[in-house]
């Protein structure tokens, strides 16, 4: 099988790209011929070089803020990249294209142009994944785009599949739980020249509670801080660490307000973006998730792979990956007191913590291994190749391709401009893409 792998980003700051890299490793090990497209080099490029995967680089600006200027830049870059992707498909005789988010309109257009199947791989509820296209394309229009320009949709959990099934035919959707490379995680967890407690100047007997993720409304670290406040009322040895970059100013302000109001400055540490998350997990006593929703919750899955007890609010996505009292502890969504009680239980009952951690590893080996992830993906890709009908999407190529070309040309004219011209262009984009529904 010859696969074109379209990455969302290049620096592994986004969990989607870590998952895609793990999948790529599994596919290469299984004998799949993979060529990758990245927006720039970064850590992902280095890792793909290590794997012997050929890479093409072309910018997209997918992760920039959703302001009008950034939207125009995104669509203009997609117009340019669609040509690059079409050339790659033709030159490399690609059999299937894998787009690791629903933002890869360029890949979908190129795949349709070259009459090869495309797989959308979606990691968030449909209304979240749709955000890149609002307000220019409504939710039904986005769903029509996914269905019309893609051969299959992969959802990373049953909850995500249910979300997309509200707008797409269920038979168009496959559930594929993401996997982790347990051996690689274990190796990275052991890379440490200095104990974490020494690095952070914490007492040797400090009990560490770790939260991992971008500081955003989704991860709800303000709730994490309130849980910390409850725990500290009865456990003076506990310290709380948050490893992840600030992403949303409002979420960061809410977290800092909780820390200040509850006088948690000495006990809640913001570590920022880190490239040694497995080491932090291994050094911690418990991993706590207060996320409002997850696609699957890969930071918790990785903690389980490293035998760390996980306490999690039972949010969409993550709730189906943990069995309460068996391989982790689940509490009701928003249940901060219950989360504090669960954290205290893990910290005060070491035998229970070890048992939960050992079972967590077994769960990951059984349900979320890299090998199982890659094998199931290959089955889905084969199904796409075998059932592909080339003519169904080609009628859309002139419409979408011409529109993207207009956007690229307009973007060159308004690089320094603000005002009605650009807003009008984006409105036209919404109208044209909306025509996909008809």
3D structure, described in words:
The radius of gyration is 22 Å and the shape is globular. It has a 7-stranded parallel β-sheet with strand order 3-2-1-4-5-6-7, sandwiched between helices. By secondary structure, it is an alpha/beta fold. It folds into 2 domains: 2-179 and 372-437, Glycogen Phosphorylase B (Rossmann fold, 3-Layer(aba) Sandwich); 182-368, Rossmann fold (3-Layer(aba) Sandwich). It has 18 helices and 13 strands. It has helices spanning 15-29, 42-51, 68-92, 105-113, 126-129, 139-149, 158-165, 182-189, 196-199, 221-232, 249-261, 277-283, 298-305, 336-348, 350-367, 370-387, 397-413, 420-434, and strands at 2-6, 33-38, 54-57, 96-99, 118-122, 152-155, 173-175, 207-212, 238-243, 268-272, 286-289, 310-313, 329-331.
Q: What fraction strand?
A: 5-15%
Kindly give the count of domains. 2
Averaging pLDDT over every residue, what do you get? Answer: 87
Structural class: alpha/beta
Identify the CATH architecture of the largest domain: 3-Layer(aba) Sandwich
By CATH, the superfamily of the largest domain comes out as: Glycogen Phosphorylase B
CATH class of the largest domain: Alpha Beta
Q: Radius of gyration from the CA trace? A: 22 Å
**Terminal CA distance:** 34 Å
Strand order of the largest sheet: 3-2-1-4-5-6-7
Shape: globular
How would a crystallographer describe the biggest sheet?
7 strands, parallel
* Unreliable runs: 418-423
Helix-residue proportion = 40-55%
Quick structural gist:
By secondary structure, the protein is an alpha/beta fold.
């Amino acid at each position: 099988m010859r696969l074109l792998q379209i990455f969302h980003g290049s620096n592994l700051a986004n969990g989607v790209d870590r998952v895609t890299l793990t999948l790529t490793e599994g596919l290469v090990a299984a004998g799949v011929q993979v060529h990758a497209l990245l927006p720039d080099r970064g850590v992902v490029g280095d890792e793909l070089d290590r794997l012997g995967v050929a890479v093409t680089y072309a910018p997209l600006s997918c992760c920039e803020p959703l302001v009008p200027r950034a939207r125009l830049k995104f669509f203009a870059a997609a117009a340019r990249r669609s040509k690059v992707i079409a050339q790659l498909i033709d030159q490399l005789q690609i059999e299937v294209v894998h787009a690791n988010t629903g933002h890869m309109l360029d890949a979908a257009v190129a795949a349709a142009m070259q009459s090869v199947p495309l797989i959308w791989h979606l990691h968030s509820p449909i209304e979240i994944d749709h955000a890149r296209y609002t307000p220019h394309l409504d939710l039904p229009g986005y769903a029509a785009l996914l269905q019309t320009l893609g051969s299959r949709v992969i959802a990373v959990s049953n909850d995500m599949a249910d979300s997309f099934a509200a707008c797409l035919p269920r038979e168009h959707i496959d559930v594929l739980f993401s996997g982790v490379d347990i051996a690689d995680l274990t190796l990275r967890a052991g890379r440490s020249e200095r104990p974490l407690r020494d690095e952070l100047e914490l007492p040797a007997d400090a009990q560490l509670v770790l939260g991992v993720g971008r500081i955003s409304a989704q991860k709800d670290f303000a709730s994490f801080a309130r849980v910390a406040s409850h725990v500290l009322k009865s456990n003076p040895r506990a310290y709380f660490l948050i490893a992840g970059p600030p992403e949303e100013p409002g979420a960061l302000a809410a977290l800092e307000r909780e820390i200040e109001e509850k006088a948690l400055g000495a006990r809640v540490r913001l570590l920022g973006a880190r490239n040694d998350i497995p080491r932090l997990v291994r050094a911690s006593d418990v991993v706590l998730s207060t996320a409002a929703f997850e696609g699957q919750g890969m930071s918790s899955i990785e903690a389980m792979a490293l035998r760390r007890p996980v306490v999690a609010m039972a949010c969409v996505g993550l709730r189906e990956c943990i069995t309460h009292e068996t391989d982790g502890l689940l509490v009701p969504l928003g249940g901060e007191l219950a989360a504090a009680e669960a954290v205290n239980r893990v910290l005060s009952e070491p035998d229970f913590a070890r048992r939960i951690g050992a079972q967590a590893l077994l769960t990951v080996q059984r349900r979320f291994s890299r090998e199982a992830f890659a094998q199931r993906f290959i089955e889905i890709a084969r199904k796409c190749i075998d059932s592909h009908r080339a003519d169904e999407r080609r009628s859309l190529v002139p419409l979408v391709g011409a529109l993207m070309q207009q956007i690229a040309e307009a973007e060159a004219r308004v690089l320094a401009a603000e005002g009605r011209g650009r807003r009008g262009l984006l409105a036209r984009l919404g109208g044209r893409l909306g025509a996909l529904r008809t």
